[in-house]
Amino acid sequence: MPLNGNGWTPQNVTRFIQSFGTAAATALVDTDLGEGYIKALGNPEGPHILACELVGSLLADWLGLPTLDFALIEVTPDDEIPLLNGGNARVGPAFISRAERTGLPWGGSVGELASVHNRLDISGLVVLDTWILNCDRYAPHGQRVNLDNVFLVQYSGSKRKALLKAIDFTHAFTCGREINRRIAFIENVRDEQLYGFFPVFQDFVERAEISRFAARLTEFTADVASAFISLVPQEWDISSDARSAWAAMITQRAQFVAETVEMRIWPQQQFNEGGTA
What we know:
alpha+beta; Phosphorylase Kinase, domain 1; Phosphatidylinositol 3-kinase Catalytic Subunit, Chain A, Domain 5; 2 domains; 8 strands; 32% helix
C-alpha cells in the first residue's frame, strides 16, 4: 500500500531547487509529481535518521495525526542533488515529503495555536512524541526546543485557517544515535519523561483527548511495528537484530505510555485523587 495511504508516489527527481542546513541536509527538489523535501543518503548524520523519519511518520499516521504526504524515492546516478554540508546525495533510497506551499513553522505564540483548526491534535502530538522519544521538538525540561518542527499549513476561507501537521522524526527513538539492540533496553521502554510538551501547549492539551490517544496506543501490536520497520530499506543499514529490538521497543512503549501519559501531564490531580504522581 502507499506510504501514509495517500497515493503520492513520485518516481523520479527531475530538478534540484535548494538545499538547507538541517541535520538531515534536506533539499527541495522537483519530481514527476511535484515538489518535495528529500532526505537522502550522504547526510552528515547517517542513514539511521532516515529510518527514524520513515517509521515516525508511519506511527504518526497510525495514531491518527495528519502528516505531510510522504514516500520513498530512488536517487539515481543521474540525479545531482547537492547537500549544504558538501557533496551530493548518494545513490539509493531516500525519504521525501510533499512540499506544502502555504506551510509555515510555528512562531511560538498562543494566538497561532488558537487559530489551528485541529487543535485537538496538539494533545495527540504530545502523546506521539512521548511514545517515540522525540527529542527534536521539545525535549524534556526544555533541553532542546525546535519551533520549526511544529508545522502549520495555512488555509483560506475559514475562521480557523491553519492545520497542524506532524512532521520531522529524524531524531526520534534515539535522539540521532545509532539504532541497535540497545534501543529496547528498559530505560528507553519505561522512560517517564514527557516529550513534545511545550509550556504553551498546556492551555491546549485536553484530558479527554490525551485519554483518547492513549486508548489508541493500547491497540498497537508487534505485528504492526514489524510491518512498519520492514519498510525501512536495507540500504539504510539497520541489522535484523536491531530491527527486532526496535519493534519490541515501540510495542512495549506504546503500552507503557498508554498507562502513564495522563498521570505525567496531570500529576498533582492524580496525587489529590489518591494516585501515584
